[in-house]
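Job type: complex structure
Entries:
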Amino acid sequence: MSNKTKRFLLPESEIPTQWYNIQAEMPNKPLPFLHPGTKQPLKSSDLYPIFCEECSNQELNQTDTWIDIPEEVRDRYKNWRCTPLVRAYGLEKALDTPAHIYFKNESVSPVGSHKLNSALPQVYYNKQQGVTNITTETGAGQWGTALAYACSQFGIDAAVYMVKISYEQKPYRRSMMNIFGAQVTPSPSMSTRAGKDILTQHPDSNGSLGTAISEAIELATQTPNCKYTLGSVLNHVSLHQTVIGLEAEKQMAMAGEYPDKVIACFGGGSNFSGIAFPFMRHNFSEGKKTEFIAAEPESCPKLTKGVFEYDFGDETGYTPLLPMYTLGHNFQPASIHAGGLRYHGAGVILSQLLKDGYLKGVDLPQSETFKAGILFARSEGIVPAPESCHAIAATVREALRCKAEGKSEVLLFNLSGHGIIDLASYDRYMQGDLTDYVPSNSELESYLKDIDVLQP
Amino acid sequence: MSNKTKRFLLPESEIPTQWYNIQAEMPNKPLPFLHPGTKQPLKSSDLYPIFCEECSNQELNQTDTWIDIPEEVRDRYKNWRCTPLVRAYGLEKALDTPAHIYFKNESVSPVGSHKLNSALPQVYYNKQQGVTNITTETGAGQWGTALAYACSQFGIDAAVYMVKISYEQKPYRRSMMNIFGAQVTPSPSMSTRAGKDILTQHPDSNGSLGTAISEAIELATQTPNCKYTLGSVLNHVSLHQTVIGLEAEKQMAMAGEYPDKVIACFGGGSNFSGIAFPFMRHNFSEGKKTEFIAAEPESCPKLTKGVFEYDFGDETGYTPLLPMYTLGHNFQPASIHAGGLRYHGAGVILSQLLKDGYLKGVDLPQSETFKAGILFARSEGIVPAPESCHAIAATVREALRCKAEGKSEVLLFNLSGHGIIDLASYDRYMQGDLTDYVPSNSELESYLKDIDVLQP
C-alpha cells in the first residue's frame, strides 16, 4: 500500500473558473417551464419575483456552455476546495474486486456536504442584487446548513423552513443553522397561508419538503427585499455543482484513468449533476461510453417508477410547472433516514437526459445502503451520510459484478457528505431497528392520478 | 480578500518523516516516573505489562531528538494530512484587530480531531508486536473514536471504557465507535475490580476519566495479548502529535511569518504539545522569544492552581507516580461541555516546561469559550469543538490586547477538532442554560491533601 497514491489533490489555483452549463450541449434541450396559471412557457423574468435575476437567467440559459464563477465565490470555495479524489484501495480489498474504485470526497466542506457549492453563489448573486433576506426550506438539514453558512459569510439574513419531523428528531442540524445565525421554523407553521391550510386539515402533520417549499416561497414573495433559494432540482443548482466533476476530471487524469461508470445518489439531482455532467459532455461529443448511475431509495423511486409529466415542484402549487420524472407532487415518501432523497421529482435537465438514455436509475433498500456505509467506514475511515450510502451501495453492486465477470472497470462515485450528524440513523440500523419500504403500485398510482389534473 | 492567500497547503510528500522528541533537548529533563509500590525510578521495561514495547521505549527516551515515523503510519496519515494552515482574515475583521491570526486546522481528520495522529502509531506498534486486543478509556469520545478508527484500519479489536455520563448524554460518539467496530462499555462497570469498587461505594456514579483509565488498564493487564493505550498526558502521545507543529512551521514560512504566540487548549496536553514543541525548540536553541499559552477551563485549573507533585494518572492508582502539575487524582471536575479538558493532571514534559517558564496557563470560563466559538463559526465557517473553543477564546483575548496596544503580533492557534458532535452544548449555551464554575480554594485543597499520602 505504501507506494500507492491514494489521494489526488489539486492546488487552489485549479479550482474551476467556470461552471459547465450542460443545457447548451444537450442533444435534446429540456422542455420549457410553464406558467401554472396560463400554461405558457416561462421567460427568466417570470422567475424574478421568486429568485434573484442572475439565478433566474442561469436557470433558462440554453446557449452559454461555460459560465464564469465570480471571483468572490471562488474565493469562498478556497475554504475547502479543491476536494480530494480518493482511490478506495481499502474498499476494493474488502470487496476483493478487480474494479478500480475512486470517490470524490465532498464531505470535507465546512458544512459536511456538497450543498455549499451552490449556496455560496446563490447568496452572492442575491447580495449583489441588494437582497437582504433569503428564505429556503430544508429536509434533513444539509441544504439549510449550507445556506445559513453562506448567508453568514455574505452578511444576509436567512429564514429556513425545516420539515417538522426533522426539526424535532434531528435537532443538531437546527443547532448548526442557529450557530451560523439563521432563523429556523418548523414546517408546517402558522406563519404562512400554505402552512395554515395544512395545519387546519392535518393538525398533526409532520411536514414534507413540498410543504416547506411552499412556505418558503410564500414568505419570499410577500416580504420586501427577500428572495427564495433552493438546494437541488433546479438547473442553476446543477450548474453550480459542476465544480465537482470538473475537478474530478483533472484528478482522474492525474490517476491515469477514465471512469467506466459514474455513480451518485439522487434526491433532486444536485450532487449527481455535479459529478456527472462534466464527464457526460464527452459522451455527447467524443463518443465516450461512460455509464451514469443514479442511486435512489426504493421508497421514493421517481427515476425507476415515476412518469415524465409536467408537475409542480412543491405541494401547494406555487412553482412553475416543470417537465420531469415525478411520483406526483402530493407523493408522501416513507420516513427513511436519507432525508435528502425524499423528494417526488427529478430536475428538468436530468429528466430529459434520463428520457434520452444518458443515465439510468437504480433503486435501493435502505438496509443495503447502511450496510454499504458501514463497510465503507471500516475500510476507508469515513462515515458517509445516509444519502451518500446509496451511491456506495450502488458502487458495491457494480464492484461485485466486476468481480463476478472478472472485469477491472473504473468506478467513480461522489461522496456527497459525511454522516456525523446522522449517527442516530446508524444506531437504529445496527440495532436491527430499520425497515425497508417499497410503495405498492396502487399507492404510486393514487399519487400519479393528481398530476393529470394539472396537465396543460 | 480575493487576492489574499488564506490556506497554506502542503503536498503529501511534506508529511513529516520523523517526530520531534522534545525530551532530548529540554534544558531540564523531566523527573523520572516512580514505581507506585517501590517508589523507585521506572525503566521502560517496567511499562511493558501495560503498554507495547515501542511506546514504552518512546515514553522514556531522553536521547533521540528525532524518531522515524513508520511508513505504514505515514501512509495512513495521507488519508487527511497535511492539514491546512489558515489565515483567519474573517476573525481578524470581526475583532477589528491588527494581529495576524493563523490556525492549524486539525478538525479535518476523518474522526474530526487531532487524536488520530497518535492513535494510528499506537495501534501500529501494538500490531507489530502481535497484540490482538487494545483497551482504552474516553471521556467526551474524541480519543475513543480515533482509537476505534485506527483499530479498524489495522485489524485489531478495541474495547473502550466510556465515562458513563458521556455514554448516556452523548450517544453519537459511541455510535461512531460502534460503526468502526469497537466495543464500548460505560464506566464504572461491573467488568473490573476498579469499577465494582466504585459502584459498591457509589451506585449512582456518573464515572470519571480517572475511573475509566483504571478499568481499561485492569482489563489490559488481565487479558492475554492485550495492551492499554492512552490519548493524552503521556510523552509518546505528545511525540506523535508533533506532526502538527512540524507542518505548521513550514506553513508559517510559506506565509512569510513566525508566531509571537502559540496557543492551544489544554486537557492532558496532547494537542498543545503537538503545535508547541516544534516551535519551542527554537526558543531553546536560537533565542526565539515565542510565548506559549495553554488554555484550560477555570473549572479544572491544574496549570494555574495545581501543585507540582508526584501523583497518579488514574483514580484507583494503577499508573506509575508521575511528576506533574495536578489537582489531585481524586479531583472531580465540574460537568463542563469540554469533556476532553476534564482531567486532573498535566503531562510530565509539559509540567517540567511550565515549571521552567517555557509556557503559561490561562484559565477561561466556559461561557466565554462558547461565545468565542460562535464568533469563529460565523467569521471562519467552522464550528469548533468545545475544547478548541478554549484556544479560540485565549486567542481572542490576545487579539483584543493587540488592538488595545496597537500591535500587529502574529498569533497561531491549534484548532484541535470540530464541534459537529457537540452541537447540544452549543444549544445549551445559546439558550442561556450554561453556568460557569470556579472551584473554591477549600475545594481545591481537599483534593490536594490526598496527594501527600502518596509522596515518596
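Summary: The two ends of chain A are 59 Å apart (CA to CA). The longest helix of chain A spans residues 386-405.
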